[in-house]
Each structure stands twice: as structure tokens, then as C-alpha cells.
Specification:
It is a single chain. The protein is mainly alpha-helical and 243 residues long. The protein has 2 domains: 36 residues, no CATH class; 198 residues. It is 75% helix and 0% strand. It is built from 8 helices and no strands. Helix 4 crosses helix 5. The N and C termini lie far apart (50 Å).
Length: 243
């Protein structure tokens, strides 16, 4: 059994019912006495933090006198929209909201691990897998909406129609490999980064922890960007009409 964080222990003590009911509906094996896991409680905590942060941001929005928090998220917004517009040739703003939400959610989940008493939920494979499945469903749905069923299915045939018997299996395998790739990349990097940082924190408290904390922040930001960028590329490939 995993070591429970303080938040996980509180939820298992006072609110075991909701998590137990959810896992029963989804038929996910779990401990009925302690259904809350660290990754689940941390994911809920990150969602709550994001709601609070954006709630505070909304009350402080100003055109004449923008604050520091507004400046930060304006830069994030510009960064996400520029990435989407550079990758998706037409109608990029339609998809910027989804990829931006992915980026912010993953970034917050990656960074929460540097706070004592918390850990990054993305170091558990269940969380990257869920995000990868959402990205997989979204880009396929976007492709179907943009091109229609027949138009999107034609992209599986390839540029030479008489090679369909070869291209269709290759395309199917390629699409199914994408959520696996997204999952393993995010999980492996965050798990390794968390373990390395924790190891050096236990060995020394002078200089080295600061260096590895900075490295952990860099990896957290980089992995959030890579996940967003790959999702944007998949959307671009799905909605492109040049197939």
C-alpha cells in the first residue's frame, strides 16, 4: 500500500463514499476502506487551486492597471495561441482553448510536487493516461467535425489509394500508439524527476537541492509544453484538408 499524503488521509477518513462510488461505477479495483489515492487527491487539489487562481484573476482583471497575475496569464494565453496558430493552419483559435486547458492543468500538476507535503499526480500513470485519452478523443472528434466522416476516413487511406490495404493498418497502429506515447513520456519524465529531486533532498540540504528543484521546475514546464504541442500537432493533422 502506498504511503498516504496528509490530504489523502483526510479524504479517506471523512469522505470515503464519493471516491468509492466513483471507482465502483468505473469498475476500477481499489481499497474500499481507503478509496482515495495520492494521485486522485492531488488531481482534485490541483483542480481546486486552478479554480481559486482563476477566480481571483477574474476579480482583478483591468485594462488600465493590470496586475502581476494578469500579466502572467496574458503571457500564457499569448504563448498558447501563438503555438496553436503556428501549428494549425486554419481555425486555430477554435482549438486553443482545449490545448491551453491541457497545458495549464498539466503544468499545475507537475509543479505541485515541489511543495512539501504534496506530490505531482502526473508521476502516477493513471493521470497521464487519462489526459492522453482525452487528447486522443478530442483530435479525432475535431477531424470528424472538420472533414466529415468520409473525409476523415480518407486520411487513413494515404495519398495512393491502391495501397489502402497497407496504409490503413499502419495508420490505425499509429493513432493507437499516440496516447501510449503521450502517457509514457509524461509519466516517465515526471516520475524520474520527482525521485531524483527527493533523493538529493534527503542526502543534503545545501545548494544541491536548489539546483535540482530548479531542474524539476524546468522539466515540469517542458513536459507540459511537449504534451500540448503534440496534441496540437495531432489536431492539425486531423483537421487538415490536404490529405
Amino acid at each position: 500500500m502506498e504511503h498516504q499524503l496528509w490530504l489523502t488521509a483526510l479524504l479517506n477518513r471523512f469522505l470515503p463514499g464519493p471516491a468509492d462510488a466513483l471507482f465502483n461505477v468505473l469498475r476500477i479495483p481499489h481499497d474500499h476502506a481507503s478509496p482515495w489515492t495520492n494521485w486522485f487527491s492531488m488531481e482534485i487539489a490541483v483542480a481546486a487551486i486552478i479554480v481559486v487562481v482563476f477566480g481571483l484573476l477574474r476579480t482583478r482583471l483591468s485594462v488600465e492597471n493590470p496586475g502581476g497575475l494578469q500579466h502572467v496569464f496574458e503571457l500564457v494565453f499569448q504563448f498558447v495561441t501563438d503555438t496553436a496558430r503556428d501549428t494549425i493552419p486554419h481555425g486555430a483559435d477554435r482549438y486553443a482553448g482545449f490545448v491551453g486547458t491541457l497545458f495549464i492543468f498539466i503544468l499545475f500538476m507537475n509543479l505541485i510536487g515541489i511543495i512539501p507535503g504534496f506530490e505531482s499526480p502526473t508521476m502516477s500513470p493513471m493521470v497521464p493516461l487519462g489526459l492522453a485519452v482525452c487528447a486522443f478523443l478530442y483530435y479525432n472528434w475535431s477531424g470528424l467535425r472538420a472533414q466529415g466522416v468520409l473525409g476523415y476516413l480518407k486520411s487513413f487511406v494515404g495519398p495512393v489509394w491502391w495501397l489502402f490495404f497497407l496504409m490503413i493498418p499502419i495508420e490505425i497502429i499509429s493513432h493507437l500508439a499516440r496516447p501510449l506515447s503521450l502517457t509514457v513520456r509524461l509519466f516517465a519524465n515526471m516520475f524520474a524527476g520527482e525521485k531524483v529531486t527527493f533523493t538529493f533532498l534527503t542526502l543534503t540540504y545545501f545548494l544541491a537541492p536548489t539546483i535540482f528543484m530548479g531542474l524539476h521546475v524546468f522539466v515540469a514546464m517542458l513536459q507540459a509544453y511537449i504534451f500540448m504541442l503534440l496534441t496540437t500537432i495531432y489536431i492539425s493533422m486531423a483537421v487538415a484538408h490536404e490529405h
